[in-house]
Amino acid sequence: MLPADLQSYDFRLPPSLIAREPLARGTERLLVIDRRTRSWQHRTFADLPALLAPADCLVANDTKVIWARLQATRASGGAVELLLHRELAPGSWEALLKPAGKCRVGETLTVSPRISATVTAKYAEGLVTVTLQSDGPLEKILDAVGHVPLPPYLRRADTAADRVNYQTMFAKTPGAVAAPTAGLHFTPALLSALRQRGIAVTAVTLHVGLGTFQPLRHHQLRAGRLHAERYSVAPAAAAAVHACRARGGRVVAVGTTTVRTLEQSALDHRGTVAAGSGETTLFITPGFRFQAVDALVTNFHLPRSSLLLLVCAFGGRGLMLAAYQEAIATGYRFYSYGDAMLIL
């Protein structure tokens, strides 16, 4: 069920509340929302273990951000920026090129003496397909010459600190061009506290794509589908979710990407989370029937975004927008490097 009016998912955020640098992990504020009582309380993220029950299972996203933003030079000497999006085949990538207007199909862009990119196709809105030529493993070269793909709303260049700050402690499987930011709050000590309380912890994989930075398009609203993102549910993760269900616990998703992964699996397997992989275009909007997720840890999202619609689908539009106004009124920090909420 699609929203009739995106204006109903809009809000005004003072620019001063956009977090441009992170706090120490685990010290962020946590707005805890109870859907049953339609109430909230103010806590810190370090309180999370006490807010969950021993029977619960926490599910994170273990995707690893690649340093996919590349500064390149045309043969004419002009500077362009290439943001790798997803690998289509070995060496062939979908990417966002800025500015794309003057670049032609067949043109080769030089990133460094170690890597170049040849434009093989051009599409609307700056999207291109490129073939990469490199003198070694791509991930190692990107580590050397690539930049952290920070969200545009941070309005600053990346720094060496972002290479640590914009990667979650769960990061394992390279492929994302944006961090699953709800996972940025976790530390080894916090994870240990969760496990000591008896809370199971597992992970799935969804490689966050370029679409997470982009506003909702009319064609997405009409089609009821989002940009495709690759996901994987390992047998161990599926078993952990099943065991949680069997003991009466709650499946607690860390971030909207984890929600999309688990719910896509449940849709594909008659309500059961099962091992498997594929691509998801799942667009979760109010009216969606959740089958896999019982609680959600998430950051505060952009207005009129697919992420905000998902949160409103899970918690109820009225309650969630009221909670956002509470967060604004009490000075919570927003977006990727900001504070968090726990929806129970």
Q: What does this entry look like structurally?
A:
By secondary structure, the protein is an alpha/beta fold. Helix 8 packs across helix 9 (317-329). The chain has a 9-stranded mixed sheet. Helix content is 23%, strand content 30%. It has 9 helices and 17 strands. It has 2 domains: 6-65 and 163-343, QueA-like (3-Layer(aba) Sandwich); 69-147, Thrombin, subunit H (Beta Barrel), CATH 2.40.10.240. The longest helix is centred in the last third of the chain and has 13 residues, at 256-268. Strand 6 (79-89) and strand 7 (92-98) form a beta hairpin. The model has no long low-confidence stretch (mean pLDDT 93). The chain has helices at residues 48-51, 138-145, 162-165, 188-196, 218-223, 235-246, 256-268, 306-315, 317-329, and strands spanning 29-34, 39-44, 57-61, 63-65, 69-73, 79-89, 92-98, 108-112, 115-122, 127-134, 173-176, 200-206, 225-233, 251-254, 276-282, 295-299, 340-343.
- The CATH topology of the largest domain corresponds to QueA-like
Q: Strand order within the widest sheet?
A: 2-1-17-16-14-3-12-13-15
The CATH architecture of the largest domain can be named as 3-Layer(aba) Sandwich
Largest sheet: 9 strands, mixed
CATH level 4 superfamily of the largest domain: QueA-like
Briefly, what CATH class of the largest domain?
A: Alpha Beta
> How many strand segments?
17
Q: From the alpha-carbon coordinates, what is the Rg to the nearest angstrom?
A: 20 Å
Question: Low-confidence stretches at least 5 residues in length (pLDDT < 50)?
Answer: none
